[in-house]
Amino acid sequence: MSNILRTISKHPLGKRSPLSSLSRYVRWQVGSRILGMPVVMPFVNEGCLVVEPGMTGATGNIYFGLHEYADMAFVGHALREGELFVDIGANIGSYSVLAAAGPKARVIAFEPVPATYRRLRRNMEANHFAHEVTTKQVACSDRVGQVRMTDDLDTMNRVTSDGPGALVEAAPLDVLLEGEKPVVMKIDVEGYEPAVIAGAEAVLQNPSLLAVVMEVPGAGPIPALDAKFLSRGFTLHHYDPDARVLRSGAKGSNAIYARMKSDLAERLRTAKPLRVGSLSL
Fold this sequence. Notes:
Structural class: alpha/beta
CATH superfamily of the largest domain: Vaccinia Virus protein VP39
Radius of gyration: 18 Å
Shape: globular
CATH architecture of the largest domain: 3-Layer(aba) Sandwich
Number of strands: 16
Order of helices and strands: HHEEHHEHEHEEEEEHEHHEHEEEHEE
Strand content: 15-25%
CATH topology of the largest domain: Rossmann fold
Strand order of the largest sheet: 5-4-3-10-11-14-12-13
CATH class of the largest domain: Alpha Beta
Number of domains: 2
Distance between the termini: 28 Å
Number of helices: 11
Mean pLDDT: 90
Low-confidence stretches: none
C-alpha cells in the first residue's frame, strides 16, 4: 500500500485527487481478482481499454485517467480529426485508442510481440476502430528481416540478441508506411530507437511530421539522435498540459522532438478538451 500511495503522490493527476485515485486502485485490485477475467474500462471520450491485472501502463490509466499524463495529453492536443498518428511499440494500444477516440485521428500501430499484438487487436475491436486504426504485427527497424523480441516483460519487451523470445518480422518505417505522412509519432521500443530512426529517413524529412514523442533512457536523450532530429528542424521539448505549452528540454522518461516553426503551438492552445472520467483536460 505504501508503494501505491507514493505513486499517487507523485503523479500529476493522482495528487490532484488522491482519495479518488486510491479508491480506483482498491476497486480495481479487488474487482479484477473477483472477476478473474479481462475488464472493459472507460478511457478517453467514448474510448475504452480492455485491461487485465499486471498491465502496468493500462492499469495506470485506470488509477489516474492518463498514465503518462503530459505525453498522452500532448498527443491528444496536437492531432486533429483525420490526421495520421503512428504508434511504434504500441503495446496494448493505449496511445492508439487515445488518438482515435480523442481527436479522432487515423492511426497506424506497430506491435511485433505476438501475445501483445493480440491484446492490441482486442482493444481496437472493443472500440470498433475498423476504419480509424490499422495494426501491423511487425518491428520497425533499419532493414528488412527478422529480430528476436522478449515476450514476457509486459511494457518492457524489447529486441534481444539471445535467449528466449519471439522471432518477428522487421522492416524500415519508410517501407512500412508506403508514403503515408504522419503528423505525430510515438516511439517506445526500449533502447531500439536508433534502429527505428535509421529506417525513417523519409518520414523525418517530410514537413507534415510535427512531433515525435520518444522514450529516452535514464541518462537522457541520445546525442546522435538529438543531432539527427536537430538537422531536420526538430528541437527537444517537454509538454506542460495544464498551460498547453511546450517547454524546452526533456523532462521525465519521454522527450518530445517538435518542429516549433510550424503551427504546433497554436494547435495545442486551441485543441478540444479530452474527456477522461470526470476531468476535462
